[in-house]
From TrEMBL:
Organism: Picea sitchensis
Top-rank lineage group of the source organism: Eukaryota
One Pfam family hit: Hydrolase
InterPro entries: HAD-like_sf, HAD-SF_hydro_IA, HAD_sf, Pyr-5-nucltdase
Protein name: Uncharacterized protein
NCBIfam families referenced in this protein's UniProt entry, alphabetically: HAD-SF-IA-v3, Pyr-5-nucltdase
Coiled-coil regions, chain positions: none
Length: 277
């Protein structure tokens, strides 16, 4: 243990300061049908706009997604030329957003958590904002780290990668697009969020994103299953189960409140303030 990391010292600081939360299939269930519709739309785009033979499309998309993090990152990496906004409009524009309903239970949970909360998604800004609005969660987050945040125009350069490049040490082959689960995307998100990985909890429904988050030193919660996979500190069937699984998110606040009560013993007004806060 390094100097400055002893429990006596760290005990003075909250254990968790920041929550990084994925959006799709993490803040709402897979059963909403958005993911399935998204896959269909991507396949239609690759067929209709990029001219790939229909029979080859599902296999190609699967491989690119598996290797490059997102199908879009893979398409760019292997040399397809297309406009990012056009892709996002086509793929997300026709999603059944009406399937997403306001989630006041999740809203109350999020608002009651004392930590900073930031969305970390591979999706684009318009999509993220539509989903959050539909769920009624638009006011629950300090910020959104999304496709545009991770990929400023200056960072996106033309592809010079080799499609056959092998995956070494679990790293994703280079692609001009920054997205989860690349190490770079997670480091960038932590930098943008100004967050210390050791005091940050990362929520995602993707097992490989969770594994990558753990490699970056984050506390991790796999959402959508109760089975923990590699790198997952916790696994939640639903984000709604968070209080039962991770009471420590609220404990610091409770501890702080108890301290305030003890400090204020005898001062009725102060105790009332704590109770009613
Ligand atoms: Mg997701």
């Amino acid at each position: 243990m390094a100097l400055g990391e002893s429990p006596l010292v760290t005990g003075q600081r909250p254990r968790y300061e920041c929550l990084l939360l994925d959006l799709d299939d993490t803040l709402y269930p897979l059963s909403s049908g958005l993911a399935a519709a998204c896959t269909n739309n991507i396949e239609d785009y690759v067929n209709q706009k990029l001219g790939v033979k229909k029979s080859r499309v599902p296999g190609l998309c699967r491989e690119l997604y598996k290797t490059y993090g997102t199908t879009m990152a893979g398409l760019k990496a292997v040399g397809y030329v297309f406009d990012f906004d056009d892709y996002h409009r086509f793929v997300h524009g026709r999603l059944p957003y009406e399937n997403l309903k306001p989630d006041p239970v999740l809203k109350n949970l999020l608002l009651s958590m004392p930590q900073r909360k930031i969305i970390f998604t591979n999706g684009d800004k318009v999509h993220a904002s539509k989903v959050l609005n539909r769920l009624g969660l638009q006011d629950c987050f300090e910020g959104i780290i999304c496709f545009e945040t991770l990929n400023t125009l200056s960072q996106i350069t033309e592809n010079n990668n080799d499609w056959d490049m092998p995956i070494v040490n679990s790293t994703i082959p280079a692609t001009p697009i920054t997205c989860k689960p690349s190490k770079e995307s997670i480091e960038q998100a932590l930098h943008l969020a100004n967050a210390d990985p050791q005091r940050t909890i990362f929520f995602d429904d993707s097992t490989r994103n969770i594994a990558a988050g753990k490699r970056a030193g984050l506390h991790t919660v796999l959402v959508g299953t109760s089975v923990r996979t590699e790198g997952a500190d916790f696994a939640l069937e639903s984000i709604h189960n968070i209080r039962e699984a991770l009471p420590e998110i609220w404990e610091e606040e409770n501890e702080e409140r108890s301290k305030n009560v003890v400090r204020s013993r005898g001062a009725v007004a102060a105790i009332e303030t704590v109770i009613t806060a």
